[in-house]
């Protein structure tokens, strides 16, 4: 993944940090079996790594309206100003920490981004577009129907892609075996785009624009393209 977007850091002091975090999926107790939900947070104070003010940290995460097979994929926090407290409807900082734990318990990983304010703004703009496009939600791949995985993890994976990062190299830390499905899927936007599969991405769901979609060169690799409403070219 290139740093063409201009956000990837070398060595630079910043006044804020963007993090990727994991949290056990609560639905059907899937988290007990290692399944994680991912989100990204914006830490306003660079010194608050312990998360004493995490109730004020901004968050973006994927959501689903309807069923886990064919519902509507959305994004909570796409305004870029939704706090962890508001997203979880727990305004008391102590109660929120009891519910979410600390950043360390969520495997919180600081992303190597140069200009965190503009990177977060760019991610929020993409998040709003993804939310507006109302992609179908598929929690897992339905191979019999050739369905892609298109879920909340795909949202986070795509947000990282658009600021020049491959989620494969920037996963939340985990002390024990954890997993999340959907990292291989790249979600397009409503703009005309040139989207190329690479790294660990093997699936593209394009948006409304007239997109140019490019696969990988490997003979043993299977690329999956799902066109949008525009005039897409492969």
How far is the N terminus from the C terminus? 20 Å
The residue-averaged pLDDT reads: 82
Strand order of the largest sheet: 5-1-2-3-4-6
**Beta-strand percentage?**
15-25%
SSE topology string = EEEEHHEHEHEEEEE
- Compute the gyration radius: what is it? 17 Å
Number of DSSP helices? 4
Specify the helix fraction band.
10-25%
Low-confidence stretches: 1-6, 9-14
Largest sheet: 6 strands, antiparallel
The backbone outline, from C-alpha atoms, is globular
Give the beta-strand count: 11
Structural class: alpha/beta
Question: Can you put this structure into words, describing what you see?
Answer:
This protein is an alpha/beta fold and 234 residues long. Helix content is 18%, strand content 22%. It contains four helices and eleven strands, in the order ββββααβαβαβββββ. The chain has helices spanning 84-88, 93-100, 116-133, 152-161, and strands spanning 17-24, 36-43, 58-65, 69-76, 109-110, 136-138, 185-187, 194-196, 203-205, 212-214, 224-226. The strands form three sheets. Strands 5-1-2-3-4-6 form a six-stranded antiparallel β-sheet. It has a three-stranded parallel β-sheet with strand order 7-9-11. Strand 3 (58-65) and strand 4 (69-76) form a beta hairpin. The longest helix is centred in the middle third of the chain and has 18 residues, at 116-133.
